[in-house]
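My main concern about presentation is that the manuscript never shows what a single data entry looks like. The format is easy to grasp once an entry is in front of the reader. For illustration, here is how one protein appears when written out as sequence plus structure tokens:
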Amino acid sequence: MKNPIDIVKPCIRKLLPYTLRQYQYELKLNQNENPFDVPSELKEKLLAYARGRSWSRYPDFVPEEFHQKLAEYIGWTREGILVGNGSNELIKDICILVVEKNSRVIIPVPTFTLYNLISTALGAEVVEVKLKSNYTFDMEVLEKAVAIHSPALVFFSSPNNPTGCILPMNRLERILQKTNGLVVVDEAYCEFSDTTCLPLLEKYRNLIVLRTFSKAFSLAGLRIGYLIADPELVREIAKVKLPYNLNFFSQMAAAYTLENRELLQERIEYLRAQRDVVYKTLLKIPKVTPYPSHANFILFETSVDVKYLFSNLLEKGVLIRDVSQYPMLSRALRVSIGKEEENQRFIQALREAVDAAQ
């Protein structure tokens, strides 16, 4: 019998899987999660709904009620919204929609690795455009790349993961004008920033905006994402979406969360304030260089050995993210913003680790 691995596409065999090593920790600051759990009263309301609903029946094929709540939240027509089992699923659907063998996909790097992984798996030629040395988007080079390569897709993460930089809207608009391909702006962390490209949707039908409930809305464990785009384009993407892709429990959790946005906004403002405190504190630590962030995390570089620093923090029970394998980031780590006491523990552990390395 022939080895079944031999029939796997060569482009996939060359890929490294998207994975995350599991560690033992006391304080988890490595996945940009919201440190605040969903309020207990909201959980009880959701559990009461789940107990009263038949689990043997499928969820609605099209979750119209959830779409309507999202439409009211973002100010867009519900026909221009599509929900997914996390925004990762929707990234895959968008790629399936337009990427063919030898299609070109432009991706600024470093960024979320899934854009490259899925595009490459579908046979695309990925064109990577490096960020500037200060880890902001090099919009001039990106515009030239769009003009030269005529991409089927351009991916942006704004605020960008893992650097925290944001897209300048006027330069994004120039790219939208210059390309016939789709431009995807992943706004997974937008609630922590003051920017969004949603106003451009009215003018540019090739724009797709991705959002998630995993970060600001504390629902990472339930996997809920959505995209916003021109209704005609959404109808095409829906053709490749898996049926019944979002279970009834996740749908209702997200709907209830939208109804309690006031509390969530208070928590978002708290985390933004804590982010600024952590950034200013990192500036004062020798051998550490933090970069401004518009998200709920901070990227920082260090002249101390990255692996040593990561391991030393982990020995103290503090888990952050080693991003040194990303392009340009060989000296970098990323820390999620937690509650005040969690951030203080991280800072203390980092100071001790840096001092011990001297």
Summary: DSSP finds twelve helices and 13 strands in the chain.
